[in-house]
Amino acid sequence: MDAVKGSDGQNAKRPDKRAERSRRTRENIVAAARDLFVAQGYGATSLQEVADRAGVAVQTVYFVFRNKRTLFKDVVDTAIAGDAEPVATMDRDWFRTACAEPTAAGQLRFHVRGVRDILGRVAPIIPLIAAASATDPEIAAQWPAGPDPRYTVQHAAAKALTSKPDARPDIDTARAADLLYGLLSPELYLIFVRDRGWSPDAWEEWACAALTAHLCTDHE
Predict the structure, then answer these.
(1) CA 201, CA 208: separation in Å to the nearest integer?
(2) What is the 3-state secondary structure (H, E, C) of the chain?
(3) Which residues bind DNA (predicted)?
(4) Is the CA virtual torsion 74, 79, 81, 83 positive or negative?
(5) Does 57 score more than 80 pLDDT?
(6) Where residue 138 falls among pLDDT bands split at 50, 70, 90?
(7) Of 76, 147, 75, 153, nearest in space to 115 by CA
(8) Looking at beta carbons, which pairs linking 132-141 to residues 24 or more positions away fall under 8 Å?
(9) Rounded CA gap, 21 and 34, in Å?
(10) Rounded to whole angstroms, how far apart are CA atoms 139 and 59?
(11) How far is 217 from 27, CA to CA, in rounded Å?
């Protein structure tokens, strides 16, 4: 990135147009792939189709991602995060804001809203991961066996929640984490929103009310 003189005589950084173009190209390819994977399935989607939808040459897709497996992993990771920034969920502003709430009920309101935003992006992709992993061992290897990252996030949220003054004293961190993990699962979200036709707003209201009733002492 080049340095130029600003009006105050100090060096200022000139925007790197090449880096910005590369970022936009990557984002366009990921968005195109996501739409096609959801509509057609992982196996039925070719990189040529992704390139055509993104408005780039197929060689560009190969140059950026090398192969379809890597592109698929990027689609999933971007859906979870909401962007391409390498920031873990527990370091995201929404998660930190929720955990910083002084009451358990307040934390749940922020937490459910943040999870809703993630589920709106990632829930439609969850069935694709299972289907693709079943037919392609190399894709399955991209999500190695071990602690579920989603549970790790919910356990951290539960640990903060159970320390709040209005948290139910008979619910420990492990039980709270199980409730968050189960009720805020992508599978349950899909049942209500995709299969039963609930709006995301209705799902959020229900999930927040259910968790508040289970986890807080004063939920009227």
Answers:
(1) 11
(2) CCEEECCCCCEEECCCHHHHHHHHHHHHHHHHHHHHHHHHCCCCCCHHHHHHHHCCCHHHHHHHHCCHHHHHHHHHHHHHHCCCCCCCHHHCHHHHHHHCCCCHHHHHHHHHHHHHHHHHHHHHHHHHHHHHHHHCHHHHCCCCCCCCHHHHHHHHHHHHHCCCCCECCCCCHHHHHHHHHHHCCHHHHHHHHHHCCCCHHHHHHHHHHHHHHHHECCCC
(3) 46-65
(4) positive
(5) yes
(6) confident
(7) 153
(8) 132/42, 132/43, 132/72, 135/43, 136/69, 138/69, 139/42, 139/69, 139/72, 139/73
(9) 20
(10) 22
(11) 44
For residue 181 the two structure tokens come to 């993990």
pLDDT tens digit sequence for 177-195: 999 999 999 999 999 999 9
- Count Cβ neighbours within 10 Å for each residue of 120-149 and write b for 16 or more, e otherwise: bebbbbbebbeebbeebeebeebeeeeeee
Q: Output the average pLDDT for the chain.
A: 88
- How high is the pLDDT of residue 2? 47
End-to-end alpha carbon distance in the chain: 56
pLDDT at 35: 93
The total number of residues shown for the chain amounts to 220
Instruction: Please list, in sequence order, all residues whose beta carbon lies within 8 angstroms of the beta carbon of residue 142, skipping any fewer than 6 positions away.
Output: 69, 73
Whose CA is closest to 94, among 126, 118, 77, 78? 118
Q: What is the dihedral of CA 110, 204, 86, 4, to 10 degrees?
A: -70
Look at the block and give the residue holding tokens 């008979």. 170
